[in-house]
Amino acid sequence: QVQLVESGGGLVQAGGSLRLSCVASGRTFSIYGIGWFRQAPGKEREFVAHITSITTITQYADSVKGRFTISRDNAKNTVYLQMNSLKVEDTAVYYCAANAGMSYEYWGQGTQVTVSS
User: Fold this and answer.
1) Distance between CA 102 and CA 20 in Å, rounded?
2) 3-state DSSP call for residue 56?
3) Which residues does 40 contact at the CB level (< 8 Å), separation at least 6?
4) Any bridge partners for residue 93, and if so which?
């Protein structure tokens, strides 16, 4: 299995930027697809972005498309989520998750992102 730790969250004004990091343990990190999810207070967890394990194909939720960019550095066992043009509605706890097949099996503890108007 793999352990994931998110970092980089914080408070930012609307229109600003943050970069989240997801650092994974394990020598086989490169075989996992990695997704970012978020959960706002009182709401269900929602999908944000995904990057595949080998071809690094990316996928984004419509709500963040054109503003967020997911990338990975396998040498550092790290996946990034660059968030630009942040909106108040982006406020949530952000989680990364690892997918070795058809489902996300491993999850981090999350990092808080708060966007102020």
Assistant:
1) 24
2) coil
3) 89, 91, 92, 93
4) 39, 112
